[in-house]
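Suppose a colleague, Dr. K., hands you the sequence of a protein chain of 265 amino acids and asks what its three-dimensional shape might be. Before reaching for any lab equipment, you can write down a predicted structure in token form. Begin with the sequence itself:
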Amino acid sequence: MDIHKPRYTPMSRRRRIYEGKAKVLYEGPEPGTLIQHFKDDATAFNAKKHEVIEGKGVLNNRISEYVFQHLNDIGVPTHFIRRLNMREQLIREVEIIPLEVVVRNVAAGSLSQRLGIEEGTQLPRSIIEFYYKNDQLGDPMVSEEHITAFGWASPQEIDDVMSLAIRVNDFLSGLFLGVGIRLVDFKMECGRLWENDLMRIVVADEISPDSCRLWDIKSNEKLDKDRFRRDLGGLLEAYTEVAKRLGIIVEGERPTGTGPVLVKS
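The predicted structure, expressed as tokens, is then:
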């Protein structure tokens, strides 16, 4: 069977595997695949703040597809297979490592608060932090000691995750710099991909303005989810600007669309 040519099943008839704050995972058309559906929900502070912003899911799907396809092309392993329609992607099923991996290039957000460093300060070098994925606990920051002691990942897996994080940071920094955007920081998740008896660590989840801090190089205008977190407004316009600069959508195209539209590959 060719997983690249799946038979499309309407969303209503698919088995829901998992629903998160911004995405829903459905059973895929072939064993070992899932369909990742991007919702319009915007959440912050572990969903204490919540709004539905029409078109956000469409933009995140397109931007994440663009990033993951380029990562695949340069040999960074990911769960992404292809985009199916305006809101959905076909992905490989992975066993998610319960860690959020945050790579910081510039001081912002919780780092500025914790250490009293002014937002916008260039860090001496990129810093990688780990947070335990647990909404009830508020995703607490953890060390490699915690990760290995509690069995969330082995020392070798941590090395693999950090190696991927550095490669993704190098790629994203260059990508965004080329379109006049400063990559302040980003969050990524990794999973274990099993192929027969072999297991490898791959980049999973999504990479979009929901999970990156992106500032315009000249004006420092925020083009990411901080617009929602900090009540700045204009979230959809900011995400649209990122998509336009990357050449994903053309001038005047509106990122709306309620129902899935199949993309012919």
